[in-house]
């Protein structure tokens, strides 16, 4: 059962006291994080703070030393094999750089999760692949192309179509707009927001893209000092007294993307957005 918090939001991902390390090096130390149904959570932090490690740990691609991870009300560690498989089908992942299989066409890439988890006739899988392509704004003729024949933006969309193959509840996006030009990135952000609105998706998005954070994320979590330093709205970021957070959200780079709607209150702050 998914836990409900006081204000009735449903927690779909709950991480408690999570510790992850490699050898002597602790990367995440007793980290806590909640994600609520239907939100787009933007996850930021300086380079090397452990954003990818956290995402990979949540997806069980990396082991953790202690702590608990509950996804959609289930705990992988105590779940039966059947429950784990059922849970896997409710998660979609878009890895950095798309990570499509280069020897497979777009259609075959989208059908991979269907082949792994469902027993469907080829004709139905073909139909579904075209539906997913349309969802992400790709033309039908992209289906038979190979990744090498696609632009960077099309690869991201094809990878998103694959992440949506099993109609997931929760999708993990690792830097989905990296490598896209600003217009392509803004279009991709708009697509993610549309899919959240139409499909009711919950989105966990690791990003360095301030435009994405300012335009489509409902909440933001900042990773630092091996834990979530602060989570909340953009306003909470503006108000949080930490040099990196202040530099990131009030620095020069941030000021170039703020709009009247999300303007931070005037305050003498650092002048540079800092390295991400
Ligand atoms: N398999 C691994 N073995 C050893 N150390 C690792 C491994 N994976 C990650 N690390 C270390 O964990 C730390 C966090 O890495 P991670 O890739 O999660 O950072 P990040 O916040 O995603 O960085 P970036 O924004 O640059 O992608 C780094 O110091 C990295 O070297």
From TrEMBL:
Claim: Transport is one of the keywords in the record = yes
Q: Name one GO molecular function term.
A: ATP hydrolysis activity
Region listing for Disordered, in residue ranges: 256-276
Pfam family for this entry, one: ABC_tran
Query: What SUPFAM superfamilies does the record tag this protein with?
Result: P-loop containing nucleoside triphosphate hydrolases (SSF52540)
Q: Which domain of life is it from?
A: Bacteria
Alphabetically sorted, this entry's keywords are: ATP-binding, Nucleotide-binding, Transport
ABC transporter domain mapped to chain residues: 13-250
Q: Which PANTHER family does the entry mention? A: PROTEIN TRIGALACTOSYLDIACYLGLYCEROL 3, CHLOROPLASTIC
Q: Which family, according to UniProt?
A: Belongs to the ABC transporter superfamily.
Name this protein carries in UniProt: ABC transporter ATP-binding protein
């Amino acid at each position: 059962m998914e836990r409900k918090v006081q204000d009735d939001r449903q927690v779909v991902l709950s991480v408690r006291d999570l510790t992850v390390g490699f050898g002597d090096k602790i990367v995440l130390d007793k980290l806590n994080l909640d994600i609520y149904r239907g939100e787009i959570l933007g996850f930021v932090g300086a380079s090397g703070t452990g954003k990818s490690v956290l995402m990979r740990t949540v997806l069980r691609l990396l082991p953790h030393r202690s702590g608990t991870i509950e996804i959609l009300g289930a705990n992988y560690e105590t779940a039966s094999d059947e429950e784990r498989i059922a849970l896997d089908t409710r998660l979609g992942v878009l890895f950095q750089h798309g990570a499509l299989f280069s020897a497979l066409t777009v259609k075959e890439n989208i059908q991979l999760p269907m082949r792994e988890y469902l027993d469907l006739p080829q004709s139905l899988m073909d139909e579904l692949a075209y539906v997913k392509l349309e969802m992400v704004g790709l033309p039908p003729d992209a289906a038979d192309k190979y990744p090498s024949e696609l632009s960077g933006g099309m690869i991201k969309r094809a990878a998103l179509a694959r992440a949506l193959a099993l109609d997931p509840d929760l999708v993990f996006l690792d830097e989905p707009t990296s490598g896209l030009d600003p217009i392509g990135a803004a279009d991709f952000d708009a697509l993610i927001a549309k899919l959240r609105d139409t499909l009711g998706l919950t989105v966990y998005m690791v990003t360095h893209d301030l435009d994405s954070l300012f335009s489509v994320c409902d909440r933001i979590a900042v990773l630092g000092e091996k834990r979530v330093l602060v989570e909340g709205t953009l306003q909470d970021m503006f108000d949080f007294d930490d040099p990196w957070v202040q530099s990131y959200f009030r620095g020069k780079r941030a000021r170039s993307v703020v709009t009247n709607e999300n303007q931070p209150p005037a305050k003498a702050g650092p002048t540079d957005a800092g390295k991400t």
